[in-house]
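REVIEWER CHECKLIST
Item 1: Sequence provided? yes
Item 2: Single chain? yes
Item 3: Sequence as submitted:
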Amino acid sequence: MLIRIVRMDFEPEKVTEFLELFENVKEKIATFPGCNHLELCKDASLDHVYYTFSKWQSEDDLETYRHSELFADTWAKTKVLFGGKPVAYSLDPQ
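Item 4: Structure as written out by the authors:
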């Protein structure tokens, strides 16, 4: 299993647009082959910072998703909303 956390810093005025986009794609991502869990979290003190927390069956499954049309389309629409550079972490649970 692989855990993936992505920190996303949005332009404050673009947060609503991101939340609408996420609402429209979350089920598609959550049911992508190899995805076992998907969750969106808001930073406790910064209203424009969000995290995705996902669990993947394997690193290969995550990479397959990252090279999919779903990811390409979603990421293209998301990255134009950023106010800062996103940071991604891949973790092996112990």
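Item 5: Key structural point noted by reviewer: The domain at 2-91 is CATH 3.30.70.100 (Alpha-Beta Plaits).
Item 6: Recommendation: ____
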